[in-house]
Amino acid sequence: VAKNQGGNRYACYRPTDSQSALQAFQIEKALRQALDQNELQLFLQSQCDQHGVLAGAEALVRWQHPEQGLISPALFIPVAERSDLIIALDNWVLARAGELLANWRSRGLNYTLSVNISPRHVRHASFVEDVKAVLARYQFAPAALVLEVTEGILVDDLQASIDKMLQLTALGISFAIDDFGTGYSSLSYIRNLPVQELKIDQSFIKGIPDQANDIAMVETIIAVARQLNLRVVAEGVETAAQALFCQQQGLWSQGYHIDKPLPVSKWQARWLDRVTATDS
Ligand code: C2E
Ligand code: MG
Ligand code: MG
Ligand code: MG
Q: Residue 48 and residue 55: Cα distance in Å, rounded?
């Protein structure tokens, strides 16, 4: 149905619109088919370490719709999260990520790959087994996989989430808190979570280096992270000044200043094949 209506139906969707329940249902139905028909596509966005050297990438999903073109995850992830469809979607991304990590490992490359996991998936009974199954199937180095979760996992049954995270960190897999600073605004919860990385939300990076408030926020987050021995990644690094700030503060950075998200093949051609070629 949604397909026949054409136009910008999907682009108009807002999760908060009260009349949009039917639309969300239609998107959900189309997305279910998209998963089956291989219309999802994996993009990678580079992450550089504190020396400005490539350290890894984040996997970001896109929907290559036959009529609508490339659809942003900001539009369809919230719909997928209304049902267990998000579990299938996350697992599709996890499998692609496992496959990539195994390939990199066979080429002697030990970059990290970060995968976004919905809070709903963390709460789902299959979460730990889903991740273990991908690890068993693709045999990549567990230390290379970073699972990004948001403060949404704190909402209910926190202890159950922590227990699951501990089962996976025991295998060597890492966790990152994504969009850090935008959620529950209490720094203290972080010490109770088995995470190895904080990703500072791009809204704080925007004001660097001009806004004193943003600098204060970022420096506070860095101080806490240091105390807890966590890696810090700055998201939304768009300018040379922001990149310099990150390097001076010892942060990893990710953002348009380094590169935009690219389809896997383009990303590999730009970031890996070049490196491999000059190394040999
Ligand atoms: P996120 O995980 O916080 O991803 C960062 C978002 O910031 C990405 O948007 C990325 O394209 C964008 N970005 C990167 N660099 C810059 C920059 O320099 N400036 C600005 N303004 N933006 C930048 P994207 O790809 O549209 O993803 C949006 C969100 O959708 C993600 O936020 C994540 O929460 C969710 N998402 C994406 N892929 C997946 C997935 O495979 N599974 C799940 N569960 N969620 C996903
Ligand atoms: Mg993320
Ligand atoms: Mg983020
Ligand atoms: Mg986000």
A: 5
209: preceding bond cis by omega (within 30 degrees)? yes
CA distances from 146 to 131, 172, 175 (A): 11, 10, 5
The CB-side HSE value for 173 (13 A sphere, CA atoms) comes to 25
Q: Whose CA is nearest to atom 4 of ligand 1?
A: 60
Residue closest via CA to ligand 1's atom 45 equals: 116
Would you tell me how many other CB atoms lie within 10 Å of the CB of residue 279? 7
- Whether the CB-CB separation of 252 and 47 falls below 8 Å is answered with yes
Instruction: Compute the half-sphere exposure of residue 93: CA atoms within 13 Å on the CB side of its CA.
Output: 27
- For 76, 112, 192, 196, 249, the CA distances from 166, given in Å and listed in that order, are 30, 19, 11, 12, 29
Q: For atom 15 of ligand 1, which residue has the closest CA?
A: 255
Ligand 1 atom showing the smallest separation from residue 178 Cα? 3
Question: How many degrees, rounded to 5, is the angle at CA 233 between CA 82 and CA 167?
Answer: 60
pTM: 0.91
Q: Could you report the average pLDDT of every consecutive run of 10 residues in the chain (280 residues)?
A: 41 54 84 94 98 97 92 94 96 98 97 97 97 98 97 86 97 96 76 94 95 94 94 98 97 98 97 64
How many whole angstroms separate alpha carbon 140 and alpha carbon 100?
Answer: 9
